[in-house]
Structure formats: structure tokens, C-alpha cells
Design brief:
Length: 72
């Protein structure tokens, strides 16, 4: 059972890293050189789905980590 939790936690952590990297903020290189307007707008479409999937993956990661501590 412990190995299954570790494998699931590893998979969720990889998914969480990918989802965080997919989120976009700013205007790519323009914000790196000081052209950031500070206005991000509202999330729409796939950006909103990635945001909520990141929250769900983070919650799953915390639940798996806590359950791994309890079972050991």
C-alpha cells in the first residue's frame, strides 16, 4: 500500500509541475525588460481549466502526502 501511495504522489507531483509551467502571466519577454503593464485580465477558456486543474492537483498532492504520513 505504501508503494502505491508513493507512486501516485510522484505522478501527481509531475502533473502539478507541468500544470504550473503551463500557466501564463505577463507578456513573455516584454515583461522581462520592463514593459509589463500590470494588467492580466480575466481567465478564459483553457487558461481557467489549467488554473482549476492546478488547484485540484495541489489538493491531491497534499492529501496523498498526509495519508502517506498517517499510514507509515
Amino acid at each position: 500500500m505504501n508503494n502505491l501511495l508513493l507512486i501516485a504522489q510522484s505522478i501527481i507531483s509531475a502533473i502539478l509541475i507541468i500544470l504550473i509551467l503551463l500557466q501564463q502571466r505577463g507578456t513573455a519577454l516584454g515583461s522581462a525588460f520592463g514593459q509589463d503593464s500590470g494588467f492580466y485580465g480575466t481567465m478564459r477558456g483553457i487558461q481557467k481549466k489549467i488554473f482549476w486543474a492546478t488547484i485540484v492537483a495541489g489538493a491531491l498532492f497534499i492529501i496523498l502526502a498526509a495519508s502517506n504520513l498517517i499510514i507509515q
